[in-house]
TrEMBL record:
This is Nitroreductase domain-containing protein. PANTHER family: NAD(P)H NITROREDUCTASE YDGI-RELATED, NITROREDUCTASE. GO terms for molecular function: oxidoreductase activity. Keywords: Flavoprotein, FMN, Oxidoreductase. Residues 159-200 form the Nitroreductase domain.
Length: 322
């Protein structure tokens, strides 16, 4: 009897709801993800540039590359960059793209042609001075990592999810610092598709479309929504990557807040199609950005406060040697 009830529940409630939610995600993915099409958005163009230029940066960093490598990618990048600058003007990405192409043609082992060299020269003449070129390779050295494991562990283990805040405002400088720190997170092909949307007052309507404030979230000084832009992700095997990049970005943002002595608590984004639709209306977040999570934050109050212990199990159970 119990088994039949469970089967009926599965067939009548769980499967239909799940199918609707997956279908909703599918249509969003098909609508906003990166595709080979002439009608693409600025972000999709940026993603294409980043994908290609990052492949070249990796090639430039290899100790023993194949002679004549990378020609097709560099040629494609020069074409994309030209179109990007013509349509969108010169920005950091244009400088980066031309910078990488410049590093590429100046590397003795890369694949070149007269046309490619000419294309890169043309791009530079459009208005990017040599001193403004960015990207290529940089040098790293282990001796510069001058802190130890225990120091980092102490910083991280002093963070707890805090659901009680003072009324003191979080400053825009503090937010900018935390974003800057979040940007140190790695992202797939360095696509940097994540953003932080900041809501200062009256975010109750946002919480309302996210199953409410749970008795604490409305007391925060700021509500942050971490998003990842689907325009930056393409092939079907990348379909979950926005959540991965977004999660890493969010974690770094939380740590950026933590080291400035600002309390935070993440709040799960409720992925129900009807709530999702309402969420976009109340937040005015562009539909190509998917919410990763909410982060509530505020300054600590002066008194000592209680938080859930949130015990961590032994780290040995988390290591599986193969
Ligand atoms: C993505 C994410 C969603 C979360 N959602 C909620 C939430 O909806 N409500 C809540 O009270 N805490 C939420 N938390 C906080 C967790 O309960 C908390 O991180 C966990 O218990 C570990 O505790 P600690 O952060 O103090 O180390 C969330 C955390 C994460 C990472």
């Amino acid at each position: 009897m119990k088994k039949i009830k469970s089967l009926i529940r599965l067939l009548i409630f769980i499967i239909p709801k799940t199918v609707i939610a997956f279908k909703y995600d599918l249509f969003r993915w098909l609508r906003f993800s990166l595709r080979d099409s002439d009608r693409i958005t600025k972000q999709q163009r940026q993603a294409k540039l980043l994908l290609n230029l990052h492949a070249l940066e990796k090639g430039l960093s290899f100790p023993d590359p194949r002679e004549g490598w990378g020609y097709q990618k560099a040629f494609l990048l020069s074409k994309y960059t030209h179109k990007y600058i013509t349509d969108c003007g010169i920005d950091d990405l244009a400088r980066l793209s031309v910078g990488v192409l410049d590093a590429f043609i100046n590397d003795p082992l890369t694949g070149k042609s007269e046309t490619l060299i000419h294309n890169v020269e043309l791009l530079k003449q459009i208005g990017i001075e040599k001193k403004d070129l960015i990207g290529g390779v940089k040098f790293v050295q282990k001796d510069l990592i001058n802190f130890n494991f225990q120091e980092l562990y102490n910083v991280a283990s002093l963070r707890s999810s805090v659901r009680h805040y003072s009324e003191k405002d979080i400053t825009s400088q503090e937010i900018e610092n935390a974003v800057k720190y979040a940007q140190t997170a790695p992202s797939v092909c360095n696509r940097q598709a994540c953003k932080i949307h900041v809501f200062s007052d009256n975010f109750n309507d946002i919480l309302d479309v996210q199953l409410g404030n749970q008795g604490w979230a409305h007391k925060a000084n700021k509500l942050f929504v971490v998003t990842a832009d689907l325009n930056f992700f393409g092939s079907v095997y990348e379909r979950n990557q926005p959540y991965i990049d977004g999660g890493m970005f969010a974690m770094q943002f939380v740590m950026g807040m933590h080291v400035q002595k600002i309390a935070t608590c993440c709040k799960m984004y409720i992925r129900k199609p009807d709530l999702d639709k309402k969420f976009y209306i109340v937040t005015d977040i562009p539909k190509n950005e998917i919410p990763i999570m909410l982060i509530l934050a505020g300054n600590y109050s002066d008194e000592i406060i209680k938080v859930p212990h949130s015990y961590r199990f032994s780290s040995t159970n988390r290591t599986v040697n193969h």
